[in-house]
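To the team - tryptophan complex, inputs and output below.
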Amino acid sequence: MSEKKRILSGMRPTGPLHLGHYFGVIANWLKLQDEYNCFFFVADWHALTSEYADPWKIKGFVPGLVRDWVSSGIDPEKCVIFQQSVIKEHAELNLLLSMVTPLGWLERNPTYKEQREQLAAKDINTIGFLGYPVLQAADILMYLPEAVPVGKDQLPHLELNREIARRFNHLYNTDLLPEPKDLLTEDAKLPGLDGRKMSKSYGNSIGLSESLEDIMPKVRGMLTDQNRLRKSDPGDPKVCNLFPYHKLMTDPAKLPEIEAGCRDASWGCVDCKKVLMESLERFLTPMQERRAKLDDDTVRDILDAGNRKAREFAQRTMAQVREVIGFDF
Ligand code: TRP
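Output:
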């Protein structure tokens, strides 16, 4: 393997990716894949912590997630793309780390408290859910990475991960496990169609695999500057929900014209939406062309190859872990 530093990140397979995921997570991964030795994995066991009652739902989303990544430009030649539940070593490391992790650390985890309230309808009073960060620590520490690209919401988990590594190293008098840094993803730059956070469950998202015909009516219905009641009223791009989309997807040379046109009311929102539709088409078409070439067998092959590399790495780490605790019988 090359001399590049190693990083690792994962996503839960909970459904098709949308533009919010693209600009929130994938765009960051795309930048990192040239600079680092990247391990990107499908965290299907993590999806199970909240979906354990409907596990079959998860299965269909696994190849879908890989297809979304690769069609977005994640390059399987450069990155190791793998599936968590195939690498059983994650379960073994999870078990060993859970031995050294005090319950209090997990009970104090803000994500745990928050999610328990948010997902009140689901019964997530389970060991699996409480232990989510331990499994995450196993995912991470297995690959002895330099850093972990994550969003802000994951920072408490990463902090726990470092504490667990420190405790393990201290107890067993080793420096085997690293304390990986976070490579923080900037806050989501793209709001949903209605201005709230983009989420499939809010019905305000544009999927990466959606057809342009399906996207068009969504763009037509997008909220713009709500103070602009008539076309002759001047608008304010700062409060318009379309403008962040233009900033990310429209030719930057065009932006001043759009902004000025909105402010002096020479552009109507319909004009603006037409331009956005063209930008979306330009943005999504290459992705969808790549997607068309990714049949089931190709996705399978990508995962098989990544799984092989990940397994090799994980087996090496586990041999060292067992040795450190004297369980190398
Ligand atoms: N908890 C992460 C999320 O919900 C997913 C995840 C699981 C992960 N294991 C990981 C992310 C390891 C980074 C590293 O988004």
